[in-house]
Amino acid sequence: MPEPQTYSGGCHCGQVRYEVTTDLAQVIACNCSICTKHGLMLTFVPATAFKLLAGEDAVADYQFNKKRIHHQFCPACGVESFARGAKPDGTPVIAINVRCLEGLDLGTVKAAPFDGRSL
């Protein structure tokens, strides 16, 4: 199992910035309508492993379907670098767009397919 690392990440223009600690052991490529259109590769972390450094007042929120996930995106450049949600027990969780992590060679990341379209 990979060791947890702290990564910096954010949107394209830099208005939204964060740090996240994750081991990237589970990365998914979801086939739901929004993940497909955005090309998202996601890993999920507890909210305690995520720190929003910039953009708290700037991020826009989009919800669809069952409205359980808050897709947070930068209104300036349009990039969704993370989303907020909760586990079935109510524990807050952050979905990290792995493509927005700096210094990460995406060729080393194995994304498992996830059938979000059927949920």
From TrEMBL:
Family, per entry: Belongs to the Gfa family.
The CENP-V/GFA domain, residue ranges: 7-115
Matches recorded under InterPro entries: CENP-V-like, CENP-V/GFA, Mss4-like_sf
Protein name, please? GFA family protein
Q: What is the native source organism of this protein?
A: Vineibacter terrae
* Molecular function terms, GO-annotated: carbon-sulfur lyase activity; metal ion binding
Q: Name one Pfam family in it.
A: GFA
Name the keywords, alphabetized.
Answer: Metal-binding, Zinc
Q: Return the SUPFAM superfamilies for the record.
A: Mss4-like
